[in-house]
Amino acid sequence: MRFLIVFFVLISNVLIAQNITYLRPERVFDGEKILEKYGVLIKENKIELIDSQSIIDKNITKDAKIVELKNCTLLPGLIEGHTHLFLHPYNETPWDDQVLKEARSYRTARAVVHAEKTLKAGFTTARDLGTEGAEFDDVGLKKAIDDGLILGPKLLIATKALIATGSYAPKNFSPDIKVPQGAEEADGHDDLIKKVRNQIGRGADVIKIYADYRWGLRGEAAPTFSIEEIKLIVETAKSAGRPTVAHASTAEGMRRAILGGVETIEHGDNGTPEIWKLMVENNVCLCPTLAAGDAISQYRGWKKGFEQEPERITKKRLSFKQATEAGVKICFGGDVGVFAHGDNARELEMLVDYGMQPIDALKTATSINADAFHINNEVGRLKKGLLADLLIVEGNPAQTISDIRNVKKVYKNGILVELK
Ligand SMILES: [Zn+2]
């Protein structure tokens, strides 16, 4: 009885307060589970309450704004874990040409459009893992979004990202000329420390390194930085409160990145049982970027649905399965930019296609990413006190994952985004 009274007092305090919006969907996904006939109250920029509709209905005051959302599912705003807002699909313009031939002003203009498309697809937060030659232009893009000048998700940005000298791209030019690179070259003790600090000083929220790249003797992927170099990068970034994440697709590149202390591995195509075990033991998440590999194979001529899967795809399916079975935590990120911005849901569909349950896929793009990116005190779940970043879709994506594309409403910081 005492509980009931306390509960009622709490509820009425909440509901008497003004400027409450009551969202009344068919069900909510709170970041971890589905709750049928639940509702969410938002006040200003925060979530005020999540509870069953039968309780809220009895206590709601007349001045509350009630939003009926028939046949809809309400979720936390999604978190894209791997995007490049300064890139656009490689079948439109090859990556080399984007880096070398497109003006930065043009790339920024595109990035503005990409940011809006990302938000309108229901992604209220995004981790941008490198401008790929567009210098520190993500810093200004992020500020323009935060200042409300343009529409876009909240950004966690990596700025230029770090590569070992000679390893990255564009490549295969005459050795006599110096070709601008898609990320910043740095090596050895003093240089690495200085460049990590410089990226942080200019606005990087996260340090991204390329732990391997296609610079092997026959053009195959091979490791770049030594473990000592990676440890130094991680330590330097960590002392300023920044996590380090690594592009890695070879087993040795992954091993060095894990032992060096990175928090997420991007791609991870050629992990082995030993590597998956090492990831579990060191609590490193895998961001598998399934959609990027799928897109690139199609750009190279694979007629998906009509032709047999290329070997690369079959191997990726297998390694993804092995990683999940080994207990590696999967975070969500498609490497958007390789394919179209706004089509971020493609990675969710592919996670399911590769064997994940739809509800587990939804978790990766909400609570798991929020935890992995250290932003769970603000976003990623429907919980009192978190920011009212919300996505409302028609249907039930926990059953049919592609329903996540049926975007009806998006709220960012409690404000309804104009979707037209
Ligand atoms: Zn990427």
Structure description:
The chain is α/β, with parallel strands linked by helices and 420 residues long. Helices cover 36% and strands 22% of the residues. It contains 13 helices and 19 strands. The strands form 5 sheets. Strands 1, 2, 3, 4, 5, 17, 18 and 19 form an 8-stranded mixed sheet that branches. A 4-stranded parallel sheet has the order 11-14-15-16. The model has no long low-confidence stretch (mean pLDDT 96). Bound molecules: zinc ion. Zinc ion binds next to loops.
Key features of this structure:
single chain; 420 residues; alpha/beta; Urease, subunit C, domain 1; TIM Barrel; 2 domains; eight-stranded mixed sheet; four-stranded parallel sheet; globular; binds zinc ion; hydrolase; 5'-methylthioadenosine deaminase activity; Metallo-dep_Hydrolase; 5'-deoxyadenosine deaminase
What's the number of domains?
2
Structural class: alpha/beta
* Rounded average pLDDT: 96
Q: Give the overall form.
A: globular
Q: In CATH, what is the homologous superfamily of the largest domain?
A: Metal-dependent hydrolases
Approximately how much helix is present in the residues?
A: 25-40%
Residue runs with pLDDT of under 50 for 5 or more positions = none
The strand count comes to 19
Strand-residue proportion: 15-25%
The span between the termini is 49 Å
Radius of gyration: 22 Å
Mind summarizing the main beta sheet?
Answer: 8 strands, mixed
Named at the architecture level, the CATH assignment of the largest domain is Alpha-Beta Barrel
**What is the tally of helical segments?**
13
Main CATH class of the largest domain:
Alpha Beta
CATH topology category name of the largest domain? TIM Barrel
- Distinct ligand kinds: zinc ion
